[in-house]
């Protein structure tokens, strides 16, 4: 492993794990700020891409504009839906576990659209991932809490709790929708790269630049949450005083840019197996940190579901099989000699 690859792996853990922390701080301060956080993330990466990849608008595209429109539609929809889910009483651990089910959605889309066939172990892995997500979802359904005061009247409180639960169900539906849109995007991206060649940095730039116009209808929502952010308590950082929520948003955007850049560098320097293993371990570390630092509710059922998801992911990506295969060949020749 070269120095660049090692640095990229360390940046994936530093950038992506800290990014999850800052996103949770943002949504704890303002549960509806997911849309604003996504918008700022897109602006930041688009501006950076305009200066580097786009060379201030002078660089030529390798993939046609029409193809990018389709890709952007998928990418923007999944990104906004994922962050909007926080406005529907979805906790950060459940959000992370749900997004870990992307392999399941990719396989389902592959079977449906590309008519692919997979070995039995792949289906076992998908069953484990699906079961893990289902267990975590069922466990979380009993602990749905909306940010509001408890009502004195018991009947009214029960009615409000039922509304909270319905709101949470809508959040689960949004996460499921985002999962399959993201999987469909992956298949479309795969076909684009097969036809026009791999241009990941260009794709990253255009998928963040072109969707900016989609936020025009949500301008009022963005302004409202900017106002909420500026009204949060002031904090001082390196001699600069600014609202706490503004600080969290800045740190979220910067670490998100670092996270995405590190993953893209990793894909160019390492084999896909190394990339998948790194990203999977990063998700698990982020989940553990979210549970311990933010004291999010996490029962035995959650742990069982989480283990099913991550073991299923390791089987699907063949990491577990390759680890087992390291030890099996060493014993195989000995058995053959004994037979002779």
Automatic annotation (TrEMBL):
Transmembrane domains' residue ranges = 34-56, 68-86, 92-114, 162-182, 203-226, 246-266, 300-320
| Superkingdom of the organism of origin | Eukaryota
Q: Where is the signal peptide?
A: 1-18
Q: Which controlled-vocabulary keywords does the entry list?
A: Membrane, Signal, Sugar transport, Transmembrane, Transmembrane helix, Transport
Could you tell me the membrane topology recorded for this protein? Multi-pass membrane protein
Which terms does the record give in the GO molecular function aspect? UDP-N-acetylglucosamine transmembrane transporter activity; UDP-xylose transmembrane transporter activity
Per the record, the major location class is membrane
Q: Among its keywords, does the record have Transmembrane helix?
A: yes
Question: InterPro entries, from UniProt?
Answer: SCL35B1-4/HUT1 (IPR013657)
User: In which compartments does the protein localize?
Assistant: Endomembrane system
| Cellular component terms per the entry's GO annotation | endoplasmic reticulum membrane; Golgi membrane
Q: Name one Pfam family in it.
A: UAA
Family in the record: Belongs to the nucleotide-sugar transporter family. SLC35B subfamily.
Name the UniProt record assigns to this protein: UDP-xylose and UDP-N-acetylglucosamine transporter-like
UniProt organism field = Papilio xuthus (Asian swallowtail butterfly)
